[in-house]
Amino acid sequence: xxxxxxxTTDADLVALLxxxxxxxxxPVREQIxxxxxxxxxxxxxxxxxxxxxxSDAEGxxxxxxxxxxxxxxxxxxxxxxxxxxVLGRCDGMDSLYSALIHALKSLGGAVLExxxxxxxxxxxxxxxxxxxEILASLHVRDDRILPILLGVLEDQPELGASLLAExxxxxxxxxxxxxxxxxxxxxxxxxxxxxxVVELEAAIRDLGGALTEEQERKVxxxxxxxxxxxxxxxxxxxxxxxxxxxxxxxxxxxxxxxARFSESPHARGALxxxxxxxxxxxxxxxxxxxxSAFRAQVLRQVIFELFPRKVSCExxxxxxxxxxxxxxxTFAKEVLAHPHAEACxxxxxxxxxxxxxRRMADPSNFGMAKSLVMMxxxxxxxxxxxxxLRKWFAAYNLEQSAPGAVRPSSSRxxxxxxxxxxxxxxxxxxQRRNRR
Length: 436
Description:
- With 436 residues, the chain is mainly α.
- Among the domains are: 140 residues, Leucine-rich Repeat Variant (Alpha Horseshoe); 137 residues, no CATH class.
- 61% of the residues lie in helices and 0% in strands.
- The C terminus is likely disordered.
């Protein structure tokens, strides 16, 4: 893709947005931004094109997402109502849905009146909740906002609590306390059980409130239920016989955590959920550690040793990997209160991206299987597809069977570099674009 092409017409803009697919290169974004307000009508047209939002459309459905993000950066007040209209027909797990909410929040007070009108006209609870999320984050205090947020609290206590905490009006404390009183505990030992209790407690404390003794007992009971789920998972690091039941429980925990993350606002910072799944899976398979027991030293080993050895991607993927993991471990810290999240985030500091890029660029770090895949890529084979891999392996085997061929030594045993761990179900849930 040419990122140096001049954006001089609306057709140029649309072509570059479509060509960029999932990631909009910085040079393209900067060119579009330099055009200023003149580019807004074309961006709105892309945004409102339902066909371009489909995953099988040209550009993979990403062009409207890029358009929404740029409209936010341009502070395009004239795009507020179109963005709200598109939001009203988005699926809640659509990436465009998240991009629109983020862009509208960034426009501040100018969104207030159009958002209130959109909330009044909304045809579903999901649409009203989406607008409520925007209203809670505008940093504008208005008497009409609090009743809307309290309505969300009544319908969806977990979401309503977080929105009221973000809005920051202590007048919500009596209703939050009553909602916590009304929560019925789920006694089953599950990692994310009773999340409504967690969110309500956090909101009450954030707004300067205090819990009653009965509420304190309820919170402790909720914490105990979560600890019950952690206990067998912590055992994975001590297992000597590779107990399949424990490993299966670790995977269930991993899937639940990533599903929860994919539905959270933190997921907007993750460019690819596969990196998160892969890091946690490598931690379990190669370090014998579940998510509950994941530590900074495990993350360091996975990212800077196992990824360079096994994952068949270019060094240019380093920013995407590190930023996705930063978003996930921020979620683990702020939402799950993971005991090692802070230390994991330190491993993902400013030096992490260049360090990982250097490690991934050094062929001496490659496992045998990764070396073979990277060789095929350099030779021009489409190693990203199964058919391309088969074609490359056939050519390679033919070359190696020729008289006088030099055969590589198997220096690292049975590496399986290039494996794409299957998070497809969760990823499709988080990124699908089936517009209503």
